[in-house]
Amino acid sequence: MNILNRIVSDVQLMFRRPVREQYGALCYRLRKKDGPAVEVLLITSRDTGRWVIPKGWPMDGKSACAAAAREAWEEAGVKGAVSPQAAGSYRYRKGLPHGLKVDCRVRVFPLAVDDLCKDFPEKDERRAEWVTCAEAAERVQEPGLKALLLAFERQVLAGQASAAKNGAGSA
């Protein structure tokens, strides 16, 4: 590497912004009709209309999973039991006003949906659809989120099969 390339590389590193942390909610429900399946709730982003999961920035006084649950309610009207354990994370580049883009890492917390509210802060700004994890993986753009969705489905279905097996053995 010549000296000019090294200087350019060093300057780029100096001006690179740190990865920003966000928290997302993987809102899900179990569908039992036609065999067990996991459905997740996707919403559209406000700016581009692409399919995403509810997510947002850290909130003062709230844990990561509580912030994810709050975003799920604000963006999709979802209420339910959020796991304190993240299912995983993914990265993406978030476009900010004035064209600035920042690297973000989203920690994703499973949220078992109990209720969908009809009235919530962003109800007129987004669309929402329940889809299978496979369909969700087709719709979202971020490769890490695609992989997380498919792994989550396998994990939940394996847990259901294990619970059914243990329940059947105790009868």
The chain-level structural class is alpha+beta
Helix percentage: 25-40%
Q: Which CATH class of the domain at 23-88 and 109-154 applies here? A: Alpha Beta
Radius of gyration, taken over Cα atoms and rounded to an integer in Å:
19 Å
The quaternary structure here is single chain
CATH superfamily of the domain at 23-88 and 109-154: Nucleoside Triphosphate Pyrophosphohydrolase
CATH topology of the domain at 23-88 and 109-154: Nucleoside Triphosphate Pyrophosphohydrolase
Shape: globular
Which consecutive residue ranges, at least 5 long each, have pLDDT under 50? none
Q: Terminal Cα separation, in Å?
A: 70 Å
Largest sheet: 8 strands, mixed
Order of helices and strands: HEEEEHEEEEHH
Average predicted confidence as pLDDT: 89
How many E-type strands?
8
Second-tier CATH architecture of the domain at 23-88 and 109-154: Alpha-Beta Complex
Strand content: 25-35%
Number of helices: 4
Cofactor: Mg(2+)
Domain Nudix hydrolase: 18-153
Protein name: 8-oxo-dGTP pyrophosphatase MutT (NUDIX family)
Organism: Shinella fusca
Explained architecture:
With 171 residues, the chain is an alpha+beta fold. The protein has a domain at 23-88 and 109-154: Alpha-Beta Complex (Nucleoside Triphosphate Pyrophosphohydrolase). It is built from 4 helices and 8 strands. Strands 1, 2, 3, 4, 5, 6, 7 and 8 form an 8-stranded mixed β-sheet that branches. Residues 18-153 form the Nudix hydrolase domain. InterPro entries: DDP-like_NUDIX (IPR047198), NUDIX_hydrolase-like_dom_sf (IPR015797), NUDIX_hydrolase_dom (IPR000086). This is 8-oxo-dGTP pyrophosphatase MutT (NUDIX family).
